[in-house]
Design brief:
Low-confidence stretches: none
Radius of gyration: 17 Å
Number of strands: 0
Structural class: mainly alpha
Mean pLDDT: 88
Order of helices and strands: HHHHH
Number of helices: 5
Strand content: under 5%
Length: 132
């Protein structure tokens, strides 16, 4: 990615942009979901996330990738916050604790398995495939 986009040290901005927008947008989109309905926010967030992912895969330079990752963070935060709040309303407390345990297990599996899978994609078809 650094070589193809002539990124140099700016490649760190790709992750930073995503994390910064997730941190801020989670609060804003949670509030919007409370006021205007979680379904609308979830649907809009899914569309934003998908469009930003496609943009990430097709970027011509590092600045565009950083911007696309920032937008992807907005979409991703809306997906997470609305899904979690909806889950809290759909199930009772005992069921919620059980489902939270499953969610933690899936997150742990993704955290352990994601980087090797990403490395295989980067080594094989190329770094753009991690956004597909």
């Amino acid at each position: 990615m650094q070589a193809e986009l002539a990124a140099g040290t700016a490649v760190a901005g790709v992750t930073s942009a995503h994390l910064a927008t997730v941190t801020i947008a989670t609060l804003v989109l949670g509030r919007l979901g409370d006021r205007h309905g979680r379904r609308a926010v979830f649907t809009g967030s899914g569309l934003v996330f998908a469009a930003a992912s496609a943009a990430c895969a097709a970027v011509p330079d590092i600045a565009t990738l950083v911007a696309a990752r920032a937008v992807q963070g907005i979409g991703g935060s809306g997906l997470v916050v609305t899904a979690m709040s909806a889950l809290g309303e759909m199930v009772d407390r005992d069921q919620l604790i059980r489902r939270a345990g499953w969610q933690t297990a899936v997150f742990a599996l993704a955290s352990v398995g994601g980087p090797p899978l990403g490395a295989l994609l980067v080594a094989g078809p190329g770094w753009r495939w991690i956004f597909c």
